[in-house]
Amino acid sequence: MLPYGRQSIDDADVAAVVAAMGSDWLTTGPRVAAFEADLEAVAGAPCVTVTNGTTALHAAYAATGLTPGDEVITTPMTFVATASGAAMLGATVVFADVEEDTANLDPAAAEAAVTSRTRVISAVDYAGVPADYDRLRKITDSAGVFLLGDAAHSIGSTYRGRPVGTLADLTTFSFFPTKNLTTGEGGAVASTRPELLERVRDFRTVGSIRDPQRLRRPDEGSWHYEVHEFGLNYRLPDVLCALGSAQLRRLAGFKARRARLTARYDELLADVPGLRLPAQRSEVDPIRHLYPVRVKDGRRREVYDRLRAAGIGVQVNYIPVYWHPVFEDLGYRRGMCPVAESFYAEELSLPLFADLTDSDQDRVVEALRGILGS
To answer: Which cofactors must be present for this protein to function (predicted)?
Structure first.
């Protein structure tokens, strides 16, 4: 089965992991700080690593001080963790509709959803294309709320020449194997605001504090630490950080390859009937995590099934979050975000990853042409 996405591991990646395994530190060691510094060079802002993209969101929401009664506005066209991370802290999730062309959070819909209880607006860089952060920033600044960027798809992308880690108050990354770079499992939170990043760092380390300047009782002894607020163990180990640093050295190559594959899809699929190709926007330079086409005329399910039967592992990204039973049971109903639901009804992610060969891509195109041309 040709997957829709997969990791790219080379000898340098393997060597980095082996070296970490032979060191004195398997976790909480020097490779964590090294990877965080390497991430900052790409993200444009200081970073704290965590165990995965879901825990990155949980830690970022915790850093904003979310409490029951607060509201978080976000998009339904995302993986459930963008919403569940806020819900697990007791916040009410408010879903706003998406832009018709990019499937990113529609700033006008987000602005209309703001109330006196809003604490965070969370955007998602769908498929690697950054959201409209300038418009969203005007909204959050006016309302006095936090702007969070879920950049699980977009590390390596820029918006108006600025790297994604600099665009929001807090930005989260995922390093799952299908993402633009991988640590196996892993994630990170970036922020240009030191006080927020400090809260993320505390939260990912079970709330423990060792900095003498912050201790209430600094003279207890060098072993002493304190917990001022509850947190969880979300620490990413040195072994995975070693892989992450090695992968970051290949990120430019990954981006170039994904751009070439995207351009080939654009060219080879341009005249296929019943197919709408992904939108391009001049203000962004994306690293394409997904190649999401839209299959018209109600044929998405047929095309999905026939491509899968042919050994081509297409995917659907995503089920509108409020369709999941956990939100349905909370009173959310279908029809809330019609643009997102229309997008979902047609969306199909074609295989896209750095090691995808031209011949494999040609196979995808040929199969798709055969189905939609019949």
So the answer is: pyridoxal 5'-phosphate
If 0-12 CB within 10 Å is exposed, 13-18 middle and 19+ buried, where does residue 324 land? middle
Give the pLDDT confidence of 233-268 residue by residue, as tens digits.
Answer: 999 999 999 999 999 999 999 999 999 999 999 999
Peptide bond into 304 cis (omega under 30): no
Q: Are 65 and 137 in contact (CB under 8 A)?
A: no
Q: Which residue has the tokens 């993986």?
A: 79
Domain assignment present for residue 49? The answer is yes
235 and 312 assigned to the same domain: no
Are the beta carbons of 86 and 120 closer than 8 angstroms? Answer: yes
Which residues touch 34 (CB under 8 Å, ≥6 apart)?
A: 241, 245
Question: Same domain for 228 and 266?
Answer: no
Q: pTM for the full model?
A: 0.97
CATH of the domain at 272: 3.90.1150.10
pLDDT tens sequence across 321-353:
999 999 999 999 999 999 999 999 999 999 999
d(CA 39, CA 107): 28
Shared domain check, 329 and 187: no
Sheet containing strand 275-276, edge to edge, reads: 275-276, 291-295, 347-350
1 domain-assigned: no
Phi, psi dihedral angles at 88 (to 5 degrees)? -70, -15
Domain housing 319 = 251-372
Residue 280's closest CA among 268, 295, 265?
265
- Residue 158 tokens read as 């820029």
Q: What is the pLDDT of residues 209-220, one digit of tens each?
A: 999 999 999 999
What does the DSSP assignment read for 66-127? --TT-EEEE-SSS-THHHHHHHTTTPEEEE--B-TTT-SB-HHHHHHH--TTEEEEEEE-GG
d(CA 157, CA 162) in angstroms, rounded, equals 8
Active-site annotation, residues: 179
Write the single-letter amino acid at 205.
T
Task: Identify whether the C-beta of residue 282 lies closer than 8 Å to the C-beta of residue 73.
Answer: no
351 and 211 in a common domain: no
Residue 4 within any structural domain of the chain: no
Q: How far apart are CA 138 and CA 74, in angstroms?
A: 16
